[in-house]
From TrEMBL:
<protein>
    <recommendedName>
        <fullName>pH-response regulator protein palF/RIM8</fullName>
    </recommendedName>
</protein>
<dbReference type="GO" id="GO:0005829">
    <property type="term" value="C:cytosol"/>
</dbReference>
<dbReference type="InterPro" id="IPR014752">
    <property type="entry name" value="Arrestin-like_C"/>
</dbReference>
<dbReference type="GO" id="GO:0031625">
    <property type="term" value="F:ubiquitin protein ligase binding"/>
</dbReference>
<dbReference type="GO" id="GO:0005886">
    <property type="term" value="C:plasma membrane"/>
</dbReference>
<dbReference type="GO" id="GO:0070086">
    <property type="term" value="P:ubiquitin-dependent endocytosis"/>
</dbReference>
<dbReference type="Pfam" id="PF02752">
    <property type="entry name" value="Arrestin_C"/>
</dbReference>
<feature type="domain" description="Arrestin C-terminal-like">
    <location>
        <begin position="234"/>
        <end position="361"/>
    </location>
</feature>
<dbReference type="InterPro" id="IPR014756">
    <property type="entry name" value="Ig_E-set"/>
</dbReference>
<dbReference type="InterPro" id="IPR050357">
    <property type="entry name" value="Arrestin_domain-protein"/>
</dbReference>
<dbReference type="InterPro" id="IPR011022">
    <property type="entry name" value="Arrestin_C-like"/>
</dbReference>
<dbReference type="InterPro" id="IPR011021">
    <property type="entry name" value="Arrestin-like_N"/>
</dbReference>
<feature type="compositionally biased region" description="Low complexity">
    <location>
        <begin position="200"/>
        <end position="215"/>
    </location>
</feature>
<dbReference type="Pfam" id="PF00339">
    <property type="entry name" value="Arrestin_N"/>
</dbReference>
<comment type="similarity">
    <text>Belongs to the arrestin family. PalF/RIM8 subfamily.</text>
</comment>
<feature type="region of interest" description="Disordered">
    <location>
        <begin position="200"/>
        <end position="227"/>
    </location>
</feature>
<dbReference type="GO" id="GO:0030674">
    <property type="term" value="F:protein-macromolecule adaptor activity"/>
</dbReference>
Amino acid sequence: RLDLNSFQDFYIILDDPHKSYTPNDEISGQVVLVLKKNLMNVIITLSLLGYVKVKSSISSSSFRTRKTDLFDHIICIYGNDDINVNGNDTEDEQDIQIPENGLTKGEHRFPFVVKLPAKNIYTSISFERGSISYLLRASIGNHSLEQHQQFLKDPDTKSILKCEKLLNIVQPINVSNLPLPKIKTLVVKYPNKKLIKVPSTNTSTANSSGTSITSPEIMTPNDSPKNYDNDNSLLDPSSSLVEVPSLGYLRGELIPVKISLQHIKRVQNTSGIIITLIRICKVDFAPDGPVQNFRKDLSQTIIPLFVDPTTFKTEVSSSLRIPADVFPTIVGCNMVSFQYFIEVIANLSNNKSLSSVNQQSEAVRDDENLDDIVFSATNINSANIFNVDKLKRMKNVLTLNTEVIIGTYR
């Protein structure tokens, strides 16, 4: 039996401790063991672990925490001698001897090289509702006939001592290989001064809570659209378009945004267009749990909206700066994803300024609390970002979303 008093220190050091690794990279380092006295019959393993852990924000949910392993690879770095318990046909099996090993008092270093998998690996991140984590874990166990094979199969529960080292993983995204984005269009119809919003097939808008990114159902505040679809003479059409030149961008870059609007009357609003870069975190407790969406506003531009009184048209261009400390898009993981969108809100009212929305009493929209491992998201300045939730629920306010991908290189 191993004596815990024999151990003075046990830790992992990496050859490049500040490196952010990518899939298929090799990780080299040493496991360091310092003993206060000689030690016999010891086995040391090194595990390369990746997992996703999420927790529900619904307190009554039975799916409060869920963890899924991405990979779990184990190697033995000391003491894995062959033990043959079935190869001896002699009558006295009690005479089977276990190969002994021993470590002397002092410091011992065990070098290693492990390789990250190429698939099923995503950018490291830790946030309020979960994490995508990767680590190296060294474990020490008893090198005995009863415990040897059990320890190799499950060193976590059978170990008497272990240490861990977190790894920074970045999934590379080449933004230059992405396709061109589609133009987002919203067709607006005014039957008898009642607003109906009819999104086109390429339209992506948010619902009243601001968390749905897919194309919503047709919204009819006062009347059923079926009555008007059969009689287009009762409809006054209007449309708005949102264009971004590229689908992918890097941290710190500007995203140009072009907005075209065809309306049915003159509009003059000094803060009529609000453009916001948002991040949507999707947490999925499938197959039996809920799917929850959380929003984070990252940067914002507010510009005037002036519709020409003669043509009832306007076209404006602006841009959004991507914060330098955001992390790249994370998709493909079944349990959690992070996507970025440009949200454009057009306030078609002439007398509805931002101050009339009573925004002073509301905090900025921030559903997620993020402190990621590789990138720092805690320094994003959201003090000057206007919370659009209340505004989006008002009449004569249109919303369009278009996705952008935050990559790592081009």
